[in-house]
Design goal:
Blueprint (H helix, E strand, L loop, with lengths): L1 E4 L1 H8 L3 H12 L3 E5 H13 L3 H13 L1 E3 L5
Parallel strand pairs: 1-2, 2-3
Helix pairs in contact: 1-2, 3-4
């Protein structure tokens, strides 16, 4: 099975919402495919850059290494 995370869910994970982070860890443990869209990526990245949230930006960059980013031309 594979999962496509939306902006709200990624934000919850970055804010360390217990339910969201527990589910994310469970899916990773099961070695399921986890994706975010390029739109979600840019929404979060631009938002964090706009408010100069360097700590959260670092967390987001680490998070992006754990998932696959789907670009509009991916098949």
């Amino acid at each position: 099975m594979s999962y496509l995370l939306d902006t709200n869910l990624v934000t919850a994970i970055l804010k360390q919402n217990k339910i969201a982070t527990d589910k994310f860890k469970q899916v990773k443990f099961l070695e399921e495919y986890i994706f975010i869209s390029c739109i979600t990526y840019y929404e979060i990245k631009i938002g964090l850059l706009y408010v100069n949230a360097t700590r959260q930006l670092s967390k987001f960059n680490k998070f992006c290494q754990e998932v696959t980013i789907l670009f509009l031309d991916n098949l």
